[in-house]
Amino acid sequence: MIEVVIVEGVRTAIGRRKGALAEYRADELAAVVLDELVNRAGVDKADIDDVILGCVTQIGEQSANIARTAALIADFPIHVPGVTIDRQCGSSQQAVHFAAQAIASGDMDIVIAGGVESMTREPMFSNVGNTKVSTKLREKYEIINQGLSSERMVQKWSLTREELDKYSSESHAKALDAIEKGHFEKEIVPVEVQQEDGSLKSFTTDEGPREGSTVEVLGGLKPVFDENGVITAGNASQMSDGASAVLLMSRKKADELGLKPKARIIARSVTGSDPTLMLTGPIEATKKVLLKAGLTIEDMDTYEVNEAFAQVPLVWLKETGANPEKLNPDGGAIALGHPLGATGTKLLVTMLHRLERIGGRYGLLAICEGMGMANATIIERIE
Fold first, then answer.
1. pTM
2. For labeling, which of 61, 81, 211, 252 is most exposed (least CB within 10 Å)?
3. Do residues 368 and 89 lie in contact, with contact meaning Cβ atoms separated by under 8 Å?
4. Residue 104 Cα to chain centre, angstroms
């Protein structure tokens, strides 16, 4: 099998909904990342075989195959194609998987995989409109929203509101500490955003993390989905704007071009899970990818499990026996935000840079997805 390597990875800083990136079109934001990615890698845009981007709310400015339009905006030659995919919150992680599979099969040599989402300009579910869930589907499964799925998970695993809020408070503290220490500086591409007075300002710092997000403060928030429940805006991921991407190629092509890869992709998995509980998929996806890799959870130096809601990583920890100290050590989506289509490669980029910073070898990424699915990826840093 052809070895697939990651040569470079970048992301924008993540903007709060209606925040710093509110006036930035998603296609133009993705173009910034695509341009920076190839420039950092020192690769000719003409040599890219495909651009695969994840985007969940494909409507308005995010419609009409945003991967293609973003590549054209970024001055990629017209022969470089683009395709946009939707595997819900794991869309850009799935983009990585599709890209890696194309390279591993010998079909392509160099592929960009990434994602973008402006939850300000194209609000979540705006592409659904008044469409109702199929009656035939409802006859087979109980279809509820993710908030209620979260309440069911909390009950099934006997978690408390205090546990959720404690985890969420720690996510903010870790993210703020990571920002202060400059952990994200290398991975972020500056975005020039226009101010109210017409001047430009370079946006380089994630907006989501909040000082003072203590357990006491979070404990004062009201439940959102069930008045007697425990899921609040404080222990759920933030709606956000952002873009991210990685450059993948065969090891042979990297050697030909004189490039030094950062990591290799060891194994990939995708799985379906209970569409009612919906968010438990990372557990089985993790077991599956570890089995494929011939590794154990103890072999991993770090892991990113997307914080869609606080109970997702907490239940994942319980079921996998993973080390809490290795989980989302720079904070997660509760603090840093969750720009749906961009989150997969955003987390991968952060994990890649963390492995370099700590001298780690293996990293694992897992993301839960709407309607009950999950992807998992294991990478190995190359010395």
1. 0.98
2. 211
3. yes
4. 23
